[in-house]
């Protein structure tokens, strides 16, 4: 994989974040294929169809997305209302238990826990998707500029990207989120997105470099197609495979990071609209008396993150030229 | 500590505590290691939420430090255990002159410091002069002195403290600039405790210096010498434990346990788990949610009388609509405080009718609480032309105070009520140290939740702190036409010498504040608790959260 | 490296002071008024312009004085605070890494040898679950089950109160061995088990996956096939060819995980009230103890660089090709 990476010293692979870089580069390399486009996806799909890990991941992901889409309509209670509030007593009954009409009981404000879990999937998905999308856009811009222009621009951009990659992702997200004067859902999303930018940037730039000398690009160039047109029409579309794989994995990381940040109090301050990470953070106070308040959202986060990871990892393996040998 | 001179009180208090403790049936056999030992021996291990700053109470500001130093130091006057009432401690009696500016303290004659130095009038004056005479760093670090006395020796004319004189071996005369409700009650403050003159001198106690962003403390701050029932042992920083040993030469009844250990456990749920595991014998401020569970596991939750106030602060400078008294009244009528107290606060919490708890002198019993009446609120808002009032309303995160165990939940309840009468609430938040307090003092929020725990029994310590300083207070009272009147009236009331007269003056002021001024909305008083494990007896919960652990016994019986 | 540290110190210095709030709020609490705040800021030099503050900081720093802690251990030199907390974290990270390696490498090897089997699939899923569960939740679950419910291990802290122990290095287990206080050593070890298991989950997952992947790569190499064809015993092949070559990327990874361990230590130490660097960092952040934060962040960066240097050396030892270059 180092063959495609001409600027880095191939053997001294011990610079910071090298492992993360390697993974990204391997993925980027997957975009060049002898017969790009449909057949790649087709052959990958053929193998994926029989891969139980992928199927489980896919099932979880689809269920989660569908749930998030329809949650407000199927939730039995309004998530902001407190139908059980009169039953809440800080000492004797801090968290109302299950009862007819309230499958999992209420939370500490007497709101229906089941409804909040359902609707919470939506905010969680929003955070994950937007963080990944922003990260992707940022990475796309940087990666395209670096990969297309080359030269010192490339060196400079990649130097910055490498430094960012060397910082543990949660620490970086924490730093960015705590920089915000007033935490909100958007500062959370942006903090996580910034962590994703260098990953996508490196991925896209690698894919671009790999294609620079590929036949179809050379052909287009010799036909006199303008450089930017080559980038957008020929190089980018072919780099989409690995990007989609990385986006799937990033979604999982985004959801876990969002949970950790919410847990640390850097999430959305408005606790009325439920979000799993924030529900988990708020449940800390009840951990001795009502651990289920923490277990449900934590379980949801774990299952969904696992779903995305399983799907992403098996997609990546399927696209990896090595494992196709 | 007055306990020791009042055997009857001691017995009563211990009996009361014992009864409380025995209500919770003790199932656990306490023979397992840490808690073991006889009834007047053994070790009491207390789970502290944070490490002490250092061990010289004069420079200390936080409760975790005071909790430790309180066991080693005593003041001229003390607090009767279980109350906020002032009683004799190192001084047996005190008398003011006619205009209340010279106070003669008669001292105990049987007290020695832990290092063997005699406690006498000279030692008292040495202490006061030491506290008065601070270098620049000491003046900012000696925060409680600055707070109650107003100034240090370099600005002597503005200081309440004017001097100390040894009139006899056991008779000290302290002069103050004028009478105030706070004197001599303020001498019960932990910061103004008596320390050994010899040790102070040898340890260069006043040699504090500002270095970089922090204060570096002199050697004395690590080797404190007082007169109390426990002496300093060691601070094992690596393991987060502070060990105190029994003072066998104590002038009163010797401490019941031979060792007192404070173990730092920052996480609240971990403290509970450690208590259940039997590796600590008690901790402070258990989460109200856990009270019932703790009791049923054989621990006893000791609930203190509330000595605090939670209020919803309003800032007319940030939002001019709030200048209208009707708008403020409307907000108050919108709040369903009964529901808040019953569903969000621990048992024993009460709806507040004024800015101080009923244990403070000057509390006005005739004030009726503002009723929960959303229709009235809407009507008042309409009358004031503020139907579509928009309010930037904030709460702090990463904090739990005795008056607000869980700010987020209290906020959510208040916000729901405000929105129910048609007010648009902009949610703001910041962490306690990460900007919340700054933003409140800088007037960045229209409304916010905050509170106060009393330092000692004085009405001025409550409403004087809130509204007494016209230029700088969180309620922005300077923006109101009556702001200056209120500040002046408060100072005048505080300077009244006669106790009864002063009380009456403050009662009137409380009435005025609630009816005519309403600078903020008092919400509730909540009782902070502490919890001790099975077999622990003799803890007397203090409303000032100033428990002394010398009466505590740890045993299996 | 010096340049990096200086630049980083400037960034950290500026960043901390740009955050809302500050040490003054932490000291004053409800008592804060603009007047008292200003007095305290003036006394501590926080009212001066940033460059002046920084110049003063640097002037002290070159003399080895990094300022005095305001809240973590007030009055103590910030560097001493770090040094006094370091042994605890070294002890914890060392054990965690040991666990991760001891489990990750054999399991990765076995999974690779039996690629596609149930053992492999199970191990892969297990490692992915390890990634999907937030560290703080793992830590909490471990504490809840082993310490609280089953009472097998201590809940928190580093050593039980009442244990008579002499401090030598600050690493309690080692101290006990050096002074032959076996009880103290055993007690400290018991306190270490749960936090280090929790902390080990992340490096374990990574080490496992890298080992598996690189063993798979190596198994495919010509020289292994040649060795097999030559009829060498599988033990020789395993030891001399497969494991040795597969260890190269694994070594790198182990070094790179140190950064991640630091991030994980903050969360784990908080959950177990374990008085290490992570706990100091969390406290310092909450209480805005600038000098301690500065020292801790800079020290983390220096350690990170040093560990990578060590990895380089280890790499050279394992792979002779690098030495010849």
Automatic annotation (TrEMBL), chain B:
Annotated signal sequence range: 1-23
Alphabetical UniProt keywords: Signal, Transport
Record has Transport as a keyword: yes
Biological processes, Gene Ontology terms: peptide transport
PROSITE patterns associated with the record: PROKAR_LIPOPROTEIN (PS51257)
Keyword presence, Signal: yes
Residue ranges constituting the Solute-binding protein family domain according to the UniProt record: 85-471
Gene3D superfamilies: Dipeptide-binding Protein, Domain 1, Dipeptide-binding Protein, Domain 3, Periplasmic binding protein-like II
Entry-linked InterPro entries: Peptide/Ni-bd, SBP_5, SBP_5_dom
GO MF term set: peptide transmembrane transporter activity
Any one Gene Ontology cellular component term annotated for this protein: ATP-binding cassette (ABC) transporter complex
Similarity section: Belongs to the bacterial solute-binding protein 5 family.
Protein name: ABC transporter substrate-binding protein
């Amino acid at each position: 994989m180092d063959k495609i990476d001409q600027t880095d010293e191939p053997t001294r692979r011990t610079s910071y974040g090298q492992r993360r870089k390697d993974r990204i580069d391997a993925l980027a390399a997957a975009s060049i294929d002898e017969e790009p486009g449909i057949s790649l996806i087709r052959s990958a799909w053929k193998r994926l169809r029989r891969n139980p890990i992928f199927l489980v991941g896919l099932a979880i992901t689809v269920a989660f997305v569908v749930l998030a889409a329809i949650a407000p309509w199927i939730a039995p209670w309004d998530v902001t209302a407190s139908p059980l509030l009169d039953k809440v007593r800080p000492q004797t009954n801090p968290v109302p238990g299950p009862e007819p009409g309230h499958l999992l009981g209420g939370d500490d404000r007497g709101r229906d826990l089941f409804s909040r879990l359902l609707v919470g999937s939506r905010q969680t998905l929003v955070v994950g998707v937007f963080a990944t999308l922003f990260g992707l856009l940022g990475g796309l811009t940087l990666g395209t500029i670096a990969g297309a222009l080359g030269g010192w621009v490339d060196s400079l951009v990649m130097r910055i990207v490498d430094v960012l990659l060397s910082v543990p992702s949660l620490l970086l997200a924490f730093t960015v989120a705590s920089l915000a004067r007033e935490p909100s859902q958007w500062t959370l999303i942006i903090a996580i997105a910034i962590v994703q930018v260098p990953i996508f940037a490196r991925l896209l730039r690698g894919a671009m470099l790999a294609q620079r000398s590929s036949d179809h690009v050379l052909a287009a160039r010799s036909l006199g197609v303008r450089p930017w047109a080559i980038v957008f029409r020929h190089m980018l579309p072919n780099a989409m495979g690995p990007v989609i794989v990385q986006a799937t994995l990033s979604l999982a990381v985004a959801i876990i990071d969002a949970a950790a940040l919410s847990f640390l109090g850097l999430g959305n301050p408005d606790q009325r609209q439920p979000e799993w990470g924030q529900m988990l953070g708020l449940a800390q106070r009840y951990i001795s008396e009502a651990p289920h308040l923490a277990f449900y959202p934590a379980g949801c986060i774990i299952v969904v993150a696992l779903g995305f990871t399983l799907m992403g990892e098996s997609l990546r393996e399927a696209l990896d030229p090595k494992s196709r040998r | 500590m007055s306990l020791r001179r009042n055997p009857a009180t001691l017995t009563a208090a211990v009996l009361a505590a014992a009864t409380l403790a025995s209500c919770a049936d003790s199932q656990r056999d306490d023979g397992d290691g840490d808690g073991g030992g006889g009834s007047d021996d053994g070790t009491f291990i207390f789970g502290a939420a944070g490490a002490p700053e250092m061990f010289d109470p004069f420079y200390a500001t936080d409760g975790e430090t005071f909790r430790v130093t309180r066991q080693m130091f005593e003041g001229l006057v003390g607090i009767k255990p279980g109350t906020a009432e002032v009683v004799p401690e190192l001084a047996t009696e005190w008398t003011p002159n006619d205009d209340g500016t010279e106070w003669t303290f008669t001292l105990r004659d049987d007290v020695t410091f832990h290092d063997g130095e005699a406690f006498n009038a000279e030692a008292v004056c040495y202490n006061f002069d030491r506290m008065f005479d601070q270098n620049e760093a000491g003046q900012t670090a000696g925060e409680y002195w600055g707070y109650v006395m107003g100034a240090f020796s370099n600005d002597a004319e503005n200081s309440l403290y004017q001097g100390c004189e040894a009139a006899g071996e056991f008779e000290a005369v302290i002069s103050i600039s004028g009478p105030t409700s706070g004197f001599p009650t303020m001498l019960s403050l932990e910061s103004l405790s008596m320390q050994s003159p010899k040790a102070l001198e040898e340890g260069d106690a006043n040699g504090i210096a500002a270095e970089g962003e922090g204060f570096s403390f002199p050697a004395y701050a690590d080797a404190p010498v007082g007169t109390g029932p426990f002496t300093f042992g060691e601070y094992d920083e690596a393991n987060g434990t502070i060990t105190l040993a029994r003072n066998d030469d104590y002038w009163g009844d010797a401490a019941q346990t031979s060792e007192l250990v404070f173990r730092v456990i920052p996480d609240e749920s971990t403290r509970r788990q450690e208590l259940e595991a039997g590796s600590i014998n008690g901790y402070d401020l258990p989460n109200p949610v856990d009270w019932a569970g703790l009791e049923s596991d054989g621990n006893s939750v000791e609930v203190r009388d509330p000595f605090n106030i939670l209020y919803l602060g309003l800032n007319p400078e940030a939002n001019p609509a709030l200048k209208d008294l009707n708008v403020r009244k409307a907000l108050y009528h919108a709040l369903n405080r009964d529901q808040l107290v019953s569903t969000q606060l621990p048992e024993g919490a009460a709806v507040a009718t004024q800015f101080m708890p009923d244990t403070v002198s000057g509390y006005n019993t005739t004030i009726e609480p503002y009723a929960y009446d959303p229709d009235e609120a809407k009507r008042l808002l309409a009358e004031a032309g503020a139907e579509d009032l928009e309010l930037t309303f904030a709460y702090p995160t990463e904090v739990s105070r005795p008056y607000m165990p869980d700010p987020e939940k209290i906020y959510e309840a208040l916000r729901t009520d405000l929105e129910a009468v048609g007010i648009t609430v902009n949610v703001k938040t910041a962490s306690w140290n990460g900007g919340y307090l700054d933003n409140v003092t800088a007037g960045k929020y229209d409304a916010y939740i905050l509170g106060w725990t009393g330092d000692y029994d004085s009405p001025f310590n409550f409403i004087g702190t809130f509204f007494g300083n016209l230029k700088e207070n969180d309620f922005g009272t300077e923006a109101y036409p009556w702001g200056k009147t209120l500040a002046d009236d408060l100072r005048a009331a505080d300077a009244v010498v006669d106790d009864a007269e002063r009380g009456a003056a403050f009662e009137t002021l409380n009435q005025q504040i609630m009816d005519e001024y309403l600078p903020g909305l008092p919400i509730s008083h909540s009782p902070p608790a502490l919890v001790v494990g099975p077999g622990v007896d003799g803890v007397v919960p203090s409303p000032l959260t100033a428990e002394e652990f010398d009466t505590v016994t740890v045993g299996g019986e | 490296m010096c340049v990096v540290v200086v630049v980083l110190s400037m960034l950290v210095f500026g960043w901390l002071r740009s955050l809302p709030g500050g040490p003054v709020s932490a000291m004053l609490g409800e008592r804060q008024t603009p007047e008292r705040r200003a007095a305290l800021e003036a006394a501590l030099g926080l009212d001066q312009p940033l460059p002046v503050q920084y110049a003063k900081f640097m002037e002290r720093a070159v003399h080895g004085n990094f300022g005095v802690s305001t809240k973590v251990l007030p009055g103590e030199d910030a560097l001493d605070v770090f040094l006094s907390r370091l042994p605890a974290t070294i002890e914890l990270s060392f054990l965690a890494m040991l666990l991760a390696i001891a489990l990750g490498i054999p399991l990765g090897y076995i999974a690779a040898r039996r690629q596609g089997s149930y053992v492999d699939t199970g191990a892969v899923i297990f490692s992915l679950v390890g990634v999907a569960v937030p560290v703080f939740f793992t830590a909490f679950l471990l504490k809840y089950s082993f310490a609280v419910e089953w009472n097998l291990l201590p809940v928190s802290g580093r050593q039980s109160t009442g244990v008579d122990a002499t401090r030598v290095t600050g690493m309690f287990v080692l101290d006990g061995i050096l002074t032959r206080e076996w009880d103290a050593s055993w007690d400290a070890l018991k306190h270490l088990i749960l936090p280090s298991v929790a902390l080990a989950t992340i490096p374990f997952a990574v080490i496992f996956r890298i080992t598996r992947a690189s063993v798979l790569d190596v198994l495919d190499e010509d020289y292994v096939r040649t060795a097999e064809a030559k009829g060498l015993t599988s033990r020789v092949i395993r030891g001399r060819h497969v494991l040795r070559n597969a260890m190269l990327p694994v070594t790198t990874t182990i070094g790179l995980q140190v950064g991640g361990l630091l991030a994980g230590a903050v969360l784990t130490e908080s959950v177990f009230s374990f008085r290490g660097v992570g706990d100091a960092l969390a406290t310092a952040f909450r209480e805005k103890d600038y000098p301690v934060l500065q020292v801790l962040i800079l020290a983390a960066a220096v350690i990170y660089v040093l560990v990578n240097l060590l990895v380089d050396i280890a790499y050279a030892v394992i792979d002779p090709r690098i030495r010849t270059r």
